Amino acid sequence: MPDDTLIHDPKGGLLRLIAIMARLRDPDTGCPWDIEQDFASIAPYTIEEAYEVADAIEQENWPELRGELGDLLLQVIFHSQIAQDRGLFDVEDVANAISDKMVARHPHVFGAESRDKSAEQQTRDWEALKAAERAADAKSGTLDGVALGLPALLRAVKLQKRAARVGFDWPETSHVLDKIQEEVEELHEASEHLTQDKVEEEFGDLLFVMANLARHMKLCPETALRRANAKFTRRFERIEALLSEAGKTPDQSDLAEMDALWNRAKAEERGEA
């Protein structure tokens, strides 16, 4: 029988988690589900856990954040164990790789460079170091290394940031707003005269420029949309509550009534009701 002393130690910390994952993946004594998993099957869970971390932060729910960070950490350990099982690398290699990267990218903290520079200068230096790393990895294209698996809005912003670094960018936010108007008109025309595929293309163009507007306004479009989703959820749930007080459900109502209740919910949020 394996020695489970560390696994059952409530103060075992990170080493305990690593031992737990190793046991779960053990081909003889582990969990059949965990043994079956590979990088691709686990990746969606990794993305989901990252969003749940962001959600806990958005709600300022710190006990929840602790748990969600643990779930995200488990994903790192899981991927690392799969890699170790395949003889690729292990969790120590993962930790050393990110440690090396952080030391190399902070010469003003861990090296001889002066710390006497602005956050903006530090950002420029960081980007210069990343560009040098990409060049060393034979990734010479401006857009090389922008992950395909990113959420589309975030990837749009990253692509635009890369292009902006080499001067491919509108100099003023007003130019982006003009482009949005142009894209709206093109989408309207496509919706009336062109195929659904072309309508989708024009809609994508509009979203891409909206992401660019967020970048120019120093906003995160993903965060903005998440907040809009939360606001919509709050207000629609208020509509349902008000309808319930009248003994009704949304499907027993109509748009005019629900729109009036939406305006009431909005006024209540603003302290106007």
Automatic annotation (TrEMBL):
SUPFAM superfamilies: all-alpha NTP pyrophosphatases. Belongs to the nucleoside triphosphate pyrophosphohydrolase family. Transmembrane segments: none annotated. Its EC number is 3.6.1.8. One of its GO terms (biological process) is TTP catabolic process. One of its GO terms (molecular function) is ATP diphosphatase activity. It holds the Pfam family MazG. It catalyses: ATP + H2O = AMP + diphosphate + H(+). It is an enzyme of class 3 (hydrolase). This is Nucleoside triphosphate pyrophosphohydrolase. Residues 37-110, 176-235 form the NTP pyrophosphohydrolase MazG-like domain. Keywords: Hydrolase. InterPro entries: MazG-like_dom, NTP-PPase_MazG-like_C, NTP-PPase_MazG-like_N, NTP_PyrPHydrolase_MazG. The keyword Cytoplasm does not apply. The gene is mazG. PANTHER family: NUCLEOSIDE TRIPHOSPHATE PYROPHOSPHOHYDROLASE (PTHR30522).
